[in-house]
Write a structure and sequence with these properties.
By secondary structure, the protein is an alpha+beta fold. The chain is built from four helices and four strands; from the N terminus they run ββαβααβα. A hairpin with a 2-residue loop joins β1 and β2. It is globular and about 45 Å long. It starts with a strand and ends in a 15-residue tail after the last helix.
Length: 93
């Protein structure tokens, strides 16, 4: 197993590169030692959360990229009309 450290908005995680090379969308989270986090997390809630894995679209090479993506998503939720015309003509106003 070859683990690589990738980042989400919640922090770093270890992912197997073989899973990254497949078409899977939800990937298993590992500890640095190579054990599945869903089997070794300290609390039952953490083990349950880890059992769902992480979606590959939420993984980034650095914490800065993860934060920038998070900010982009929040901006699109809270400012959906910002910078977008959405096909509304001035005659409709």
């Amino acid at each position: 197993m070859n683990l690589v450290r990738l980042h989400t908005i919640n922090g770093p995680m270890w992912i197997d590169t073989r899973q990254l090379n497949t078409a899977r969308t939800h990937l298993t989270i590992y500890t640095r030692a190579g054990r599945k986090l869903s089997e070794t997390a300290r609390t039952a809630q953490a083990r349950e959360n880890a059992s769902y894995g992480v979606h590959r679209d939420n993984l980034f090479a650095s914490p800065e990229l993860a934060e920038a993506n998070h900010a982009r998503i929040l901006a699109s939720i809270y400012n959906p009309m910002k910078g977008a015309n959405h096909g509304i003509s001035k005659s409709c106003n």
